[in-house]
Structure formats: C-alpha cells, structure tokens
Design a protein that fits this description.
This protein has about 230 residues and is an alpha/beta fold. The protein is built from 6 helices and 6 strands; from the N terminus they run αβαβαββαββαα.
Length: about 230
C-alpha cells in the first residue's frame, strides 16, 4: 500500500472514531433553534493565523495552531454527516490582502475578508474557534459568546450546555453576548458564535488543548450541537 493511501486510511479511521463520539453525544442537548428553510452552511472559522498567532500558550504554542486543529476536526465531522460546511482557512496563514504590509494592516484586512466571506455565503452560520488567556493561571473552562443576530444566543447556549454536559461537568460558565470590540462577530448578519475552548494560561488545560484526542472530543461536542440544530 502506498504511503498516501495509508494517510487517507488513517484520516478516515480518525473521522469514523470521532463520528462515534458524536453519536454518543447526540440526544444530550435540545436543538438550538428553528432554522429557516433553505440550505445551511456551517462556516468554521479558526481564529487568527499566520503573522497573527493570537494568544501564546504557557509552552509557547500559538493559539492559531490549536484553533486550526479543532476547526479542521469539526469541519471533517460536519462533512462526514452530510452537513454543508466551509472551513475559513486550512493552513496556519493570515487571510489578508497582498497589499497589506504592517501587522496591523494585515489583521484589519484579514478580519474584513473573513466578514465578507461569511456575508457572501447564503444560509451561513458562523462558528469561530478561539482560545482564552488570562494573567492568573487558575482560570479554566470553555465559554461561548454570541453575536447580536437572530438565533445566535440560542445556539451559543446549546454549545455551552453541550460542553458542560459531555466534557466539562465542573464548568459553571454561561454563554454571554460578544463585546463590541470583536470585529467579525459584529459585522455579520447571520447566526454567529465564538467558542473560547479553554485557557492557554492554565497549564493543565493547555496540555489537554494540545492533545489530538481532546481536540477531537471538543470538535465532536460542537458537531453534535450542529447536527441537532
């Protein structure tokens, strides 16, 4: 068997394994919302990328890489179950225009391009994947934020409940409205949530967030909410 065939087989087995997790989680959370008729596209957005690595973990890993790992798993699971999905980036790169030169210009261009991409997709539902960080290391746990758009709060609450039920039973955080300073979430018209998967400043949680198995579990929990909605 050729090496690329082995890679494909390994990838399929990984998706099948993750799919079994989704089946385990299905039914634990009520549907998030009654969606309007028509095609729905889950826009999976791995936050940051490239020159903008986002937060840096206690072991020096940029947030953008962990975001991408979780997002790719979520995108694969949604596709496995026949859901329409669009992965915003497939590599650890920035999505800025070529003419952007400074880091600030690249960040602004990147965010504008992401918002334009979401707005151009009919039936889009945005799920933006991020990691949290704080100056004190004891804080941990996922938290979901929602945009000021229809159905966003219900979707965020379903994600938060699913995470607590299936993955973090000691997590007492609640879904919250997103701040005005988060450009992407405030410049789309569709349902949109931002998932802070965990704290990179907490050594124990950071170690889990770097593990492929835990990344798969996070993706499976998010996928089951999408499938139930």
């Amino acid at each position: 068997m050729r090496w690329w065939s082995l890679l494909i087989l390994a990838g399929l087995l990984a998706v099948l394994s993750a799919g079994m997790l989704v089946q385990t989680y299905l039914g634990t959370v009520a549907p998030a919302a009654s969606w309007p008729e028509g095609e729905r596209v889950w826009v999976v957005d791995p936050g940051h990328g490239g020159e903008d690595g986002g937060a840096v973990s206690v072991t020096g890993v940029p947030e953008s890489q962990i975001n991408l790992a979780i997002a790719k798993r979520l995108d694969a699971l949604l596709g496995f179950y026949g859901e329409n999905s669009y992965l915003m980036r497939e590599e650890d790169i920035s999505l800025h225009d070529q003419e952007a030169e400074t880091l600030r210009e690249k960040k602004v261009s990147d965010l504008h391009n992401r918002a334009e991409t979401v707005q151009a997709l009919e039936g889009a539902v945005l799920v933006s994947i991020h990691q949290n960080i704080f100056s004190q290391s004891q804080y941990h746990g996922s938290q979901v934020f929602y945009a000021p758009t229809q159905d966003s709060q219900a979707l965020a609450e379903s994600f938060q409940q699913a995470i607590q039920t299936n993955l973090q039973p000691d997590n007492s955080r609640q879904a919250k409205p997103i701040g005005d300073n988060v450009y992407l979430m405030n410049h789309v018209d569709c349902p949109a949530v931002l998932v802070e998967c965990g704290f990179l400043s907490n050594p124990e949680e950071e170690a889990m967030l770097r593990q492929e198995g835990y990344q798969t579990k996070l993706a499976a929990v998010l996928a089951q909410v999408c499938l139930a909605s």
